[in-house]
Design goal:
With 249 residues, this protein is of the alpha/beta class. It contains 8 helices and 7 strands. It has a 7-stranded parallel sheet, with helices on both faces.
Amino acid sequence: MKRFDNKTVLVTGGNSGIGLATALEFAKQGARVIITGRDQATLDSAKAQLGGNAVALRNDAGDLKAAKQMAQTLAAQGIKLDAAFFNAGVAKFAPLEAVDEDLWDQSFNVNVKGVFFAIQALTPLFNSGAAIVLNGSINAHIGMPSSSVYAASKAALISFAKTLSSELLPRGVRVNVVSPGPISTPLYGRLGMPAEQLNAMASGIQSQVPLKRFGTPDEVASAVLYLSSPESAFIVGTELIVDGGMSQL
């Protein structure tokens, strides 16, 4: 028997990167997987990889109406959730003097407000014993230049792991957070930097990791599955850092 046989899990932003790797691992472990994303082409590709039992929903993680619609769609299909990985997010970096209101609003709308209200909308759909995992970041801890807004948004999620656990435990739902360090995902290619600058940044980051490499999406996925499984049933409101030692040494 596989770890997630007869379980249904939701992965937001499950159409690429860490989200797709996690969705694929859940599927390998027997789960019925529901993924969300904004891009229809990558959603279709991910659904094809996940198999015919998967559900792919086009959804904007920063749109509160979309969060309610997602919950209504799942409820109408009689779907109840055993685990959810709130992975969808944006990473916008800028020095203090270059931060504008649009950057601030996009970061907090997607990374914080969208997650909070999606959980609120989906709460009636969680089975007792379900697990929620939030995707944080070590940027909330390390004080990296130009990351102030992004880091603050991820620090809010780390706080949610504690406060939402206290509210959802009476319903039998645990909340934890996984905080990746530098991971090889398409996210880096969407930072809008020239290739030379991007490569220089990547080399600089890698030199700060004691393991001297970037992590892989599969390594984060393994942590998410652990926090979603019965093996972690006594872990509540906790942050699991997956960063090759970058924030620890």
